[in-house]
Structures are given as structure tokens and as C-alpha cells.
Amino acid sequence: MALSVLERAKKKFVQKKYNEVISLLEPCVLDYHESFSFHLYLGLACLHEGVIAGALAYLDRAKQIKIAHPDPDLLCAQAAIALRRRDTNKAVECYLDALEVDPKHLLAKKGLDFIKNNNTPEAIGDFIQSGEIKKLYPQPGVREHHRKLIFSCVGTGILCALGISLGVVFFHSNSSGIRGQRADLSALALVADEESAPLSGEGDFLYTLTNKEVIASYKAAQKYFQSFKDNLAQVEVNRILYSNASPAIKRKAKTLTEYFTVPGFDTIKDSFPYSEVNTNKELYLDCWVVWKGMATNIKQSEQTLSFNLLVGYDTRTELEGVVPIVCNFSLPVDAGKPIQVLGKVQLRNGILYLRGKSIFQSQQPAQ
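Request: output the structure for the sequence above.
Response:
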């Protein structure tokens, strides 16, 4: 028997394919209007993707459905959202409610321990901006999925291969998102020769900088990186790469970008407006932005999605510009509804486009 859309979404969820969970479930909101599991998984997928507005709406509906029998995973999700809003009192209340339902709930204990040991605005702010808060997002079914995987591998006599497989999975997870403490950049510090001769007269360049300006941009890039402001750091790196800076400094600036993390809707900082990027494309190359608008000229295959974003036209009052969006994933897009795109600024033959990472287009019916 074919799996239901909800069961397929649960399988995608344990595989951490949250975009696919959203694409499977959102078109079926009306069909599952009274389903707690449906709204829980859809809300959690939105939370993991950083679509906080969607997470709030769907988790609130899940709470309404099961108000007489509180669910600890739902309560932990609400606690994490409260913590994102710096409302520690609400977060503590939710975690305590979760432990009342299930005194052994590990995530609730973990959340309470964090608040107990890090209850300052600075610590909570760093926790959120670094992406570490995602460790407090519930993942129902994931632990059981891993347990079944292990038993299956043992049963087929490939326990050794399992160790290799798990190593790849966890390395991929760490390399694509949360790093916690930022990297030690002492190896990228400028040496005396680089500081004394930071310029080069060879080649073509967009920006003509002075000695002091090159050094200042390089140090600013490092400072922004340590403050989890990768977009601002990228701008300074680009200023150096497209300038008359020396090849040695350009190499070190380029190396710095290898430590940048990929943001979500919930963690992106310093997103630049279209008008600013469009007037100085090279300066904002490889920066992450969130732009709103309407989609047109939609082309979709099993694994890719592309469309033109009418930036600013989500209100249908002002069109700022048209930007091609290219995604290496496939999700349904409704041309009649506003859409948000999280993407990386790219250039092809001088034309600005975004390499899409996530999109959000609510299909929830009006209440």
C-alpha cells in the first residue's frame, strides 16, 4: 500500500529534508485540518528551515487540536521560539510543562540547563546568532530512525561500514551549518611584509584603495566574522578582491570566506536590499539576502526550480526589479501568491541572479 502524504513527510523529516516536508504538506492543509501530527511536523519543518511565521501558525494549530493533552515536543518547540524572542520566562514555563508530561524528556532538560547556565542577553544572543539554538529544535522520529538503521546494518553484517556512514552524515551536518565558536584566524593574520606592501599595480580592478584602506578592510572582515556577521565580512572581502590589493592579501581574504556559514531565514543577518545590491553587484557577490516579491516564468523539474522574482511586487504597488532565481531543489510555487527567497547573490555575464537556498510561500488558508 502506498504511503500517505503524512507518512512520506515524516520520512523526509527524519532525513532532515525540511523543504520537501513543507512542499508535501502545505498543499494538504485543508485535508488535515484536524490532524495534530500533520500540523506538528509541518510547524517543526518550518522551524528548522527558519520560517518562523509558518512555524508559529502551524504549531499554534497543533496546540489547539491537542489542548487537553499537551505534547512535550510541541512544548519544546514553543520554548525554542520563546527563547529566540529572548522571552526566557515563557521558555522556562514551556520546558517545565514538557517535563510534567514526560519527566525524562531529554530536550526539555537540555533547554532548561542552557537557560540556567547562560541566562544573560549576550549569551542568548550568541546562542541564537551562531545557530546553536537549532540544537533545541525537536526532531521526533529521528532517534528511532537512527536506531533502526543501526540494527539493520548489524543484521546484515556491515557494522564497520555503518561507522563510516555515520561519520559522513555527522560531518556533513556540521560542515553545512552550526559551528559554535568561530574559527581561530591567527593563521590569516597579515605578516609584516604584507602590511608594509599591501598594494599591487598589476591587473584591472574596480576599487582603487590606499594602503590604510586595504588593511582596514581586511581587519574589518575578520572582525565581522568573529561577530557572526558573515555578510558584512563578505562585502569587505569583495572590496579587497576587486581592488588593487596585493595577491597575498587577496588570497588570505578569499580563504576567510571558507569559514563562512550558510544562514537560514531565522539566522541571516544584514540582508541587503535589492536597490543597494543592484547598483554595486560585485561588492555584494556571494552575500546572502532575503527578498520578497511575486514569481513568474516558473520552470520546474524533479530536482530543480527556477523562476523570475518580481522584487517588491508582493504588495502589487511597486516593482523594484526582476531577478532570476535558480534552485537545485524542487518545490511547488504558486504564481498568484507572494513569495520570500533566501539566496546567494551571483553574477552571470554581468546579470544579477540568486542561487536559492530556501523559499517560503504560505499556503495556509485564511482563518
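The two ends are 34 Å apart (CA to CA).
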